[in-house]
Write a structure and sequence with these properties.
The chain has 18 helices and 19 strands. It is α/β, with parallel strands linked by helices and 548 residues long. It folds into 4 domains: 3-161, Alpha-D-Glucose-1,6-Bisphosphate, subunit A, domain 3 (Alpha-D-Glucose-1,6-Bisphosphate, Chain A, domain 3, 3-Layer(aba) Sandwich); 188-298, Alpha-D-Glucose-1,6-Bisphosphate, subunit A, domain 3 (Alpha-D-Glucose-1,6-Bisphosphate, Chain A, domain 3), CATH 3.40.120; 303-432 and 440-447, 3-Layer(aba) Sandwich (Alpha-D-Glucose-1,6-Bisphosphate, Chain A, domain 3), CATH 3.40.120; 455-536, TATA-Binding Protein (2-Layer Sandwich), CATH 3.30.310.50. The chain has a 5-stranded mixed β-sheet, with helices on both faces. The structure holds 1,6-di-O-phosphono-alpha-D-glucopyranose. 1,6-di-O-phosphono-alpha-D-glucopyranose is lined by residues 29-30, 69-70, 281, 285-286, 357-359, 376, 378, 380, 504-507, 511.
Length: 548
């Protein structure tokens, strides 16, 4: 592509997607995320970048997802998906940030500079898959993405409204047809088909109950489960609520983030004691479970619980198939409940790695194991299996003795039901239901595997969240001066007290986490650390308080 054809980059920007704000925007934990009204020029420019990235990857397909996932309705966002369905390579985040922030006048020259720097062959074909969530601002932003792709003569394929993990899956399949068919139907065939295969091998037993309530967060996940539900033939009876419509707002008082952070049940359903309920987030890349007891107390089964459940089941299947030499490991973040880490190490005897928040960090670390189970406590996670694992298990499924073959065939179905590209609420739901059914347990028995330490999360607004910098997988603050000493001092006053503060990469807040031996102590510790952040890091507005 001759440099003169970059003129159209500027023309599209000026005529259709001008930069109308000077607010600096940064590629964060999961792409760019802010008020939807500030994003159109950013999304257009990411369309340009996706084409450049595709050409750098020899014309392989890149994904662009328009979503702000767990954030409330007025926000939106965009993130790029790399050819294997994983998050954008981290070294490109700075390039994305640079392109998003230049003036319209400098856009053409900056685009040219980036093309040179990354050595993109602009004569190659380029392909970009675009998906969006259900926000009313998403179609407009998706159109801006398409214009970005067109401006650099790439080919855009629009998927309309899909879950974020579906788009990751389709990108992977487009670049590697052994993984599946790159369509929404292809996704159902593989993931749901594998679950149904498992159900044929594992009839419902014991205390397992096929009825599952699902809170759709008024987003895309509930809508897709409504399609899947009709094909389940009674293997799972989904009772869906918060499906959008009837005035229900996306992620507002419902969904995985609300349930996990507030430790409250979502709106939208009459609850039956001990009924198993799953809550998805707005774009269905996270899931948590919970139930209420007969005193209406909520018991949460978050990402840590899901990780331990899946890891212990896969370990069981590996042993039964005679493939225990394959190394299974678990990856968590600082938010993982201390009790879960102890359970994994002491009871499951599985190695654990702790990394920074963000699926991109967890995914990367999980790849170092033969089987890597990674989950953030907020319910974002999946399992990844190495090629060696897949070939070893496939061989046993053919050549092992009867019991080994049975276990290996189940494990192969379990692998197929997993969306290995990224955390996926729908795939995770089927994996969890598989294990509960295989063990014949109800939600209370699952909960009783170990006892969580009571915990609390709070948000603090400060002038500039980048004032807070961290180290040691975000478990320690480096700046501002004196903050970590204060946190250490506060934690020291509580039995099993642990707390940390870190800047969010998706909201303009600092997140504070605390755990201790009683809920009262965890609440107090969180409030005290939040106060210290407010005082030492330039708090603005109201002082932090505990949720009512
Ligand atoms: C995104 C990321 C997650 C992260 C979450 C919160 O989730 O994909 O890895 O845990 O944001 O990040 P932070 O604490 O930096 O705001 P989602 O579901 O919103 O895409």
């Amino acid at each position: 592509m001759p440099p003169s054809s970059l003129r159209v980059v500027y023309a599209f920007a000026r005529e259709m997607h001008p930069k109308t704000t000077d607010v600096f925007i940064q590629y964060g934990t999961a792409g760019f995320r802010t008020k939807a009204s500030l994003l159109e020029h950013v999304v257009y420019r990411m369309g340009l970048l996706a084409v450049i990235r595709s050409r750098c990857k020899n014309g392989r397909t890149i994904g662009m997802m328009i979503t702000a996932s767990h954030n409330l309705e007025p926000d939106n966002g965009v993130k790029l998906i790399d050819p294997d369905g994983e998050m954008l390579e981290q070294s490109w985040e700075a390039i994305a940030t640079r392109l998003a922030n230049v003036s319209d006048n400098d856009l053409e020259s900056t685009t040219g500079e980036i093309i040179k720097e990354v050595n993109a062959d602009m004569a190659l074909k380029a392909s970009v898959y675009i998906g969006m969530d259900t926000r009313y601002t998403s179609p407009r932003l998706a159109a801006a993405a398409v214009h970005g792709v067109m401006a650099l003569k790439g080919t855009a394929k629009e998927f309309g409204i899909v879950t974020t993990p579906m788009l990751h899956y389709c990108v992977k399949c487009r670049n590697d047809n052994t993984y599946g068919t790159p369509t929404e139907e292809g996704y159902y065939e593989k993931i749901v088909g594998a679950f149904k295969n498992i159900r044929q091998k594992l009839p419902v037993a014991g205390n397992y109950n096929t009825t599952l309530y699902v809170d759709g967060a008024n987003g895309v996940g509930g809508k897709k489960l409504n399609i899947i539900k009709k094909t389940l033939d009674g293997e799972l009876d989904l009772v869906l609520f918060n499906l959008g419509g009837n005035g229900g707002k996306l992620n507002l008082n419902c969904g995985a983030d609300f349930v996990k952070v507030s430790q409250k049940q979502p709106v939208g359903v009459e609850h039956v004691p001990y009924q198993r309920v799953a809550s998805l987030d707005g774009d269905a890349d996270r899931i948590v479970y919970y139930y209420l007891d007969d005193e209406s107390k909520m018991h949460l089964l978050d990402g840590d619980r899901i990780a331990t459940l899946l890891a212990s089941y896969v370990t069981e299947l590996l042993r039964a198939s005679g493939a225990a030499q394959l190394r299974l490991g678990l990856v968590q973040t600082a938010y993982a409940n201390g009790a879960s880490t102890r359970y994994i190490t002491d009871q499951l005897k599985v190695p654990v790695t702790c990394v920074k928040t963000g699926v991109k960090h967890l995914h990367h670390a999980a790849l170092s194991y033969d089987i890597g189970v990674y989950f953030e406590a907020n319910g974002h996670g999946t399992v990844v299996y190495s090629d060696v694992t897949k070939s070893t298990v496939s061989k046993i499924a053919q050549e092992g003795d009867t019991e080994q073959r049975k276990a290996a065939q189940l494990l192969l179905n379990f692998i197929d039901a997993t969306n290995e590209t990224v955390g996926d609420a729908i795939s995770d739901l089927f994996l969890v239901e598989t294990v509960l059914c295989a063990r014949g347990v109800d939600v209370r028995q699952w909960y009783e595997t170990y006892a969580d330490l009571p915990c609390r999360q709070l948000k603090v607004t400060i002038q500039d969240r980048n004032t807070i910098t961290t180290t040691d997988a975000e478990r320690k603050c480096v700046s501002p001066e004196g903050l970590q000493e204060r946190i250490d001092e506060l934690c020291g006053a509580y039995a099993s007290g642990r707390s940390f503060a870190r800047p969010s990469g998706t909201e303009d807040v600092v997140r504070v986490y605390a755990e201790a031996e009683t809920q009262e102590a965890a609440d107090k510790l969180a409030a005290e650390v939040a106060q210290a952040v407010f005082d030492l890091a330039g708090g603005v507005g109201d002082r932090p308080t505990l949720p009512a």
